[in-house]
Amino acid sequence: MNAWTPYDRPLDLPLAAHLYRRAGFAATQDQLRQAMKDGPQATLNRILQPPPALEAFERRMAGLSGSAMVSESAASTESAELWIHRMQHTPYPLLEKMTLFWHDYFAIAGAQVGRSLLMERHIQLLRKHALGRFDALLRDLVRDPATLIALNSRVNHKSKPSHELATALLRYTSQQGDPTLIARAFTGYAVLRDEFQFRDYEHDSGAKQSADDTLQQLLQNPATARNVVRRMYRWLVSETAPPGDELLEPLAASFARDFDIAKLAASILRSNHFFSEQAYQQRVKSPVEFAIGLVTANDRPVAAAKLHQQMSAIGQRLLEPPAGTGWAGGLRWLNSFTIAGRANLAASILPAGSPELANAISPEFQLS
After folding, report:
1. Phi then psi dihedrals of residue 157, to 5 deg
2. Using one digit for the tens of pLDDT, what is the confidence trace for 127-172?
3. d(CA 311, CA 207)
4. Which of 123, 184, 185, 328 is the most exposed place for a label (fewest CB within 10 A)?
């Protein structure tokens, strides 16, 4: 049986819940019953496609963003709380789950950026491309003011190119190379009054390649597709056992042809491998996944400010990933302190003595 051919057997309750945890945060009882009735592929058709309600939801969120939040302060609290509100109410959980993936992948931290407005724009950029094309995402990212500021690249002088931007690009694409040559290609890039600007007079005319040519070369290297696929495998399938190159090669070869993120996610989520024992409960829920999963499964929205405090207390402060590396994930989420914090978080959401509370604080519930 090919690992990546579509799974075509019925869904039982554990597998339906598994699918909704990975393609979002959790499912309601009605969604689980519908998934068992419809089967895996029809359920995935529904999960993968933007729902009709999305457009109206985005209008409401734009109104909240414009009226409620983003201050001029260095704190990213308002933006994080708005995102938590979005995660609790979105009709398209897969989009938010993949936005969270890219937030961890690029690991741009608000403390480095220093401006909530720019961090909000950065997350909007990630969401715009979260299920789009990786090449377009990368090209927009290097012109994103938050990214440039976080990588000490507010001004890229030809006399002093930004090696941090070049080093980050090599890290994002999992490649070896000379950051000095790459840095010269991006001279002239700058942030002025919170906007990207290209200053031609600061560009190193002796650079061997332009910025666009450099990005294209990085994208064409097979290492880039392999890196994205390997990271997405860890996000959607398993973080316990590193997958072999042979297993991932069909996905990497397909991704290298078009960099279509949605197609890659669909190939993984529809597959026999995704519904196998190698994938079932092979991830530890991050604090965000744990908290939003509780809210979703029990249909109990919670004030975003409260959830933000609780998530931060147990190790995951949105918009503040460890700079450059992202959250380590896996068993590092769990220790005696964070397990107690998760129990307290569950108790604050669910009624005392309820079966749901007992389930939520069990060791098995920490797994995704």
Report:
1. -75, 145
2. 999 999 999 999 999 999 999 999 999 999 999 998 999 999 999 9
3. 45
4. 328
Report the 10 Å Cβ neighbour count for 296: 23
* Residue in the block written with tokens 């509370």: 357
Output the six-digit token pair for 53: 């309600």
For residues 191 and 197, give the distance between their C-alpha atoms in angstroms, rounded to a whole number: 6
Query: Which residues have CB under 8 Å from 55's CB, separation 6+?
Result: none
Radius of gyration of the chain (CA): 21
pLDDT, tens only, 354-367: 878 888 888 888 99
Contact 292, 308 (CB under 8 A): no
How far apart CA 246 and CA 26 sit, in angstroms, is 31
Amino acid at 232: M
DSSP code string of 315-352: T--TT-PPTTT----GGGG-SHHHHHHHHHHHHHHS-T
Angle at 182 between CA 155 and CA 319, to 5 degrees: 60
DSSP of 193-241, one letter per residue? TTEEEE-GGGS-TT-SS-HHHHHHHHHHSHHHHHHHHHHHHHHHT-SSS
Q: How many residues does the chain have?
A: 368
Where do the DSSP E strands lie in the chain? Answer: 189-192, 195-198
Buried b (16+ CB within 10 A) or exposed e, 25-61: bbbeeebbeebbebebeebbeebbeeeeeeeeebeeb
CA dihedral 295, 299, 305, 308 (to 10 degrees): 10
The residues, ordered by sequence, that sit 6+ positions from 89 with a Cβ below 8 Å of its Cβ are 57, 301
Contacts of 66 (CB under 8 A, 6+ apart): none
Query: φ, ψ for residue 81 (rounded to 5)?
Result: -65, -35
Q: Over the stretch 251-294, which tens digit does the pLDDT of each residue have?
A: 999 999 999 999 999 999 999 999 999 999 999 999 999 999 99
Mean per-residue pLDDT, 80-93: 96
Distance CA 83, CA 168 (A): 25
